[in-house]
Write a structure and sequence with these properties.
about 180 residues; elongated
């Protein structure tokens, strides 16, 4: 400390100042020649690879890189993690099976269509219902409606009038019953 104060105040003797400068330069070069300090690698749970969530009997672990999930628990011999069954793999297998079945059914359908005599040609546009110069198909398809006679209309109107009167009488009866005049 005394030497540093002498250098700072300028009271240092030339020989001591030279020694100090050589020592400072040697220490500086030594520090600069060392490899850079490296931090220890962090465990996978600390850099975000795994996400842990507590559950009733342990911890649920999600691997954010692969998407696999595991249940981890302490069974007395230490912590152990067991991979959970992947539903996505089961779904992909089912989709593959269904696609295979679909292809088989398409092949069977194509085979049946060719064996039943199905043709890809369109039917002729001529009217097949025309018979040797007789009525055309359009005249055979006409629908004729007969309108009701006046007698039929009178019967329907009489029915509606009677039904209406009975409905009004029933409403009046219910109204009298509600007021207590029975």
């Amino acid at each position: 400390m005394r030497i540093a104060r002498e250098i700072w105040t300028g009271k240092a003797i030339g020989r001591n100042a030279l020694r100090i400068a050589v020592v400072v330069a040697a220490v500086g070069l030594g520090v600069m020649s060392l490899p850079p300090a490296r931090a220890q690698s962090m465990p996978d749970t600390e850099n975000g690879r795994y996400t842990l969530s507590p559950v009733t009997d342990g911890v649920l672990r999600l691997d954010t890189r692969t998407g696999t999930m595991s249940t981890c628990n302490n069974n007395g011999n230490g912590w152990a993690c067991y991979a959970m069954p992947d539903e996505r793999a089961a779904l992909d297998a089912e989709i593959g099976r269904l696609q295979g079945d679909n292809e088989k059914l398409k092949a069977q359908l194509a085979q049946q269509d060719s064996s039943t005599g199905k043709i890809d040609e369109a039917y002729p546009k001529s009217d097949s219902l025309k018979k040797d110069g007789t009525k055309s198909a359009e005249s055979q398809r006409k629908l004729e409606l007969t309108l009701p006679s006046d007698q039929d209309i009178d019967r329907a109107m009489g029915f509606l009038e009677r039904a209406w009167r009975r409905l009004v009488e029933m409403a009046n009866r219910i109204q009298r019953d509600a007021s207590g005049k029975i």
